[in-house]
Amino acid sequence: MQIFEPKRKISNFHRAGVSLAVALGCFLAVSTGAAFAAGCGQPRDVGRYDMSLTSGGQERVFSYYIPSGYSGQAKLPVVFDFHGSDSNANEQLDRSEWERVAEREGFIAVAPQGSMPMKRPGYFAWNVPGVAKGDADEEAYIRDVVKAVEENFCVDPAKMYATGYSGGGRMVSQFLCDGNTQFAAAGLVVGLRAGTPKAEGAGFVPDAATCKPAKPISLIAFAGLDDKINPIAGQGLPYWGYGADAALNRWAELDACQPPTVTTEGRVETKSFACGQGTRIVSYRLSGAGHTWPGSTASLKIQKVIGKVSFDFNATDLMWEFFSKAKP
């Protein structure tokens, strides 16, 4: 895996008034010593950057944000944030606002980028195994991104978490289904899956053969009752098929969960499961919400396309609270 020099990006977070450092020099090679190979031992410039790497013989890219408290000495948690279809890494960081939380809580935010180009230049989708028809091995790329982060930044491998919006949620779901163990917990926004859809009777069910996680994992999921793109009841486009309940219940089986505690407050229904090996699953269903990231002001401008944004809570803040309590 070859890693290239990072490129400076000016983020919305910077324009909001947070002072970011200017890049000062060249990126050091991975082979410069054991301390650097572990990612620790040197400071990093604060702010959002892009980094390129070679994965599967192709040059790929990901974006990342370094908080102002980064010293290069203390090992920080990492949140990997996966964009939806017809989007990209930087747009996703604007949507999720993980930079805001990373700055406040002191962790690194990383946004990988899918391989399948869309009609709009610079916009991509994920080659999700089982439902997409691209050539790239996205799971190998994700593992390469994790490795690059471990080698180049001072991070705690036991505190790496994944979040995904829409198609990014489907990608994260399948990555976990296929037995990858890089992430200690995951958050899925309008995208929780439990394997590829399989026709059964008049509908679809999760194909158990396509979801065999290596171990129980803590999950937090969000779904809008008015989502027209990934309908909560199922059907929709061929990649979707079964509904949110089928996905949630299947993960509850896989995680060996107890029956859930269900509460409703205003427009939000919450299901909370206590599961095997100290893991948890929490599901939020939002009345009146569409195919949107709860609390995201970045999605307001496209509400006519994806439906209403819920501001009953901020999904990013809830996910970080959930991750910070997850068992490594």
TrEMBL record:
One Pfam family of this chain: Esterase_PHB
One of the record's GO molecular function terms: feruloyl esterase activity
Lineage: Bacteria, Pseudomonadati, Pseudomonadota, Alphaproteobacteria, Hyphomicrobiales
Keywords annotated in UniProt: Carbohydrate metabolism, Hydrolase, Polysaccharide degradation, Secreted, Signal, Xylan degradation
Signal sequence, start to end: 1-37
Subcellular location as annotated: Secreted
Taxonomy, superkingdom: Bacteria
Species whose genome carries this gene: Allorhizobium taibaishanense
Keyword Heme: no
GO annotation, biological process: xylan catabolic process
GO cellular component, one term: extracellular region
Protein name per its UniProtKB record: Polyhydroxybutyrate depolymerase
